[in-house]
Write a structure and sequence with these properties.
Length: 475
């Protein structure tokens, strides 16, 4: 039976489709502990592509990589009240070690502000010690009650940047750089458009003065918080005494930021681009950009022709030949469709004799004839075009599924009939946001940077407002 026949339609039960495609495409498997996930080599190869590109941007900014401990003494986590309150329901706590009860409980890292900032307090004495620009690639644990591979797991991989600055304006610039860099990665590599903007008071990171987010919209009409960047103000530097003597000899507390991008992004990638036949990977992130599938792997002449194509591409394209002789030609084509390989070369005797390639574009299903003498140039052009086409499709989807509501009645009608992003004027109010969430399951996703500058009427209260917000139901 082909992989596609085992895959339920995406238009049916989306959760069923999502978990099925992750398994059939060999992205991940369930771990033995509840809520954990094994990232398989094919899935991890996608993450490695993300790490490579994002790490280069981080280093270009002058941020250094480091590593801090997994275990955080409970007393450190409790130093910032909002922070510990925000994470308390999700904490995994170690109470015993070496067969004995611990004198102080240890929290398994949910995020690293507290463990890192204890060290920052020792490292910073003078303005000359600033800024501190540190990032770490690690795993974190948040004890989620409802889990789904990549999107929400008890343990996940990410990078978390943590910086300390002499002035608030420096910190604000760093926070903005974080979200702009993430947006660039999403658009240029994931081919996923979205909105950059500020989170509401209710939705911002626990312990932050404000949070910037990148919000994408999935085909289901639900939003995905794709990553975040936080202005921590002096909320951690005061309790951790991260202070310095400025150029005038006055003692001051530092201003801080933190920003993170996780394996949740792969879940968004699957949802955003997948279809009824499986994954559709953008070429820049695809572990295999071209799969060469000979009709008869036992045919030595055909295999030799495939190897010539491989040699012409290898080094500039991530390419592989499927030589499995225990699977039918149709099964192998379906298998690589499910895995989302951007270009599938279908090679039979007709192609070999004519010196051609029949290349199927996974994203739109179009077959393209390529002359073998120009295979590298033509393949690179096709991959570039597929990447651009996928981003344009995402941009069009975002635009088409962003609608405006002038009042709560219109808001509820749009949510019922379309979902998607709903653009409203609103004066950020946690009490009103809770009411909206309780009644509609929608929350504010962000105050988008790109949609500000006008004046309107608050869609809930009728009072004047100058802030445009996006609301949506979300994952």
């Amino acid at each position: 039976m082909s992989s596609k026949k085992l895959l339920p339609p995406k238009t049916g039960d989306l959760s069923d489709w999502y978990t099925s495609v992750i398994a059939l495409a060999d992205l991940a498997d369930y771990g033995p502990a509840k809520g954990t996930m094994i990232i398989r080599p094919y899935g991890y190869a996608i993450w490695e592509r993300v790490v490579s590109e994002l790490d280069a941007e981080i280093k270009l900014k002058g941020v250094d990589n480091a590593y801090f401990p997994l275990f955080i003494p409970m007393s450190l986590l409790q130093k910032e009240a909002d922070h510990v309150e925000g994470f308390a329901p999700e904490l995994a706590v170690v109470t015993h070690g070496g067969g004995e009860e611990l004198e102080e409980k240890l929290v398994v890292r949910p995020t690293s502000e507290t463990i890192m900032y204890q060290s920052y307090s020792k490292w910073v004495q003078s303005w000359r010690d600033l800024p501190i620009l540190i990032n770490q690639w690690n795993n974190v644990v948040r004890w989620e009650k409802r889990t789904m591979p990549f999107l929400r797991t008890s343990e996940f991989l990410w990078q978390e940047g943590h910086t300390a600055h002499a002035t608030h304006s420096e910190a604000e610039e760093m926070q903005m750089w974080g979200i702009k860099t993430y947006a660039k990665i999403y658009r240029d590599f994931f081919a996923m458009d979205g909105y950059e903007g500020y989170k509401s008071k209710s939705e911002r990171f626990a312990g932050a003065d404000n949070t910037l987010t990148y919000e994408s919209l999935m085909p289901s009409g639900k939003a995905l918080q794709a990553c975040t960047s936080h202005d921590l103000g002096q909320n951690f530097s005061r309790p951790f005494d991260i202070s310095f003597q400025d150029k005038e000899g006055v003692m001051q507390n530092v201003w801080q930021t933190s920003w993170g991008f996780s394996t949740r992004s792969i879940g968004g990638l699957v949802l955003a681009h997948g279809d009824d036949n499986g994954l559709r990977l953008p070429p820049k992130l695809a572990p295999i950009q071209v799969i060469i599938v000979p009709v008869k792997p036992q045919d030595s002449g055909l295999v030799e022709y495939c190897k010539k194509l491989y040699d012409a591409l290898n080094g500039q394209v991530r390419v592989k030949i499927d030589m499995r002789d225990d699977e039918s030609f149709g099964y192998r084509l379906n298998k690589w469709e499910v895995k989302g390989v951007p270009l599938i070369f279908k090679i039979g005797n007709k192609e070999a004799e004519a010196g051609q390639v029949t290349a199927k574009r996974r994203f739109d299903g179009i077959d393209v004839a390529i002359d073998a003498s120009e295979v590298l140039t033509a393949t690179l052009a096709q991959l570039s075009d597929i990447q651009d086409t996928m981003l344009k499709a995402s941009q069009q989807h975002l635009m088409a599924e962003t609608r405006e509501a002038k009042n709560y009645a219109e808001f509820k009608t749009i949510l019922k009939e379309h979902r998607g992003f709903i653009k409203v004027y609103w004066n950020d109010d946690p009490i009103i946001e809770k009411q909206i969430k309780d009644e509609t399951k929608a929350t504010s996703r962000c105050m988008p940077l790109s949609l500000q500058g006008g004046k309107g009427i608050d869609f809930m209260t009728g009072k004047p407002s100058k802030d445009v917000w996006l609301f949506a139901q979300s994952y």
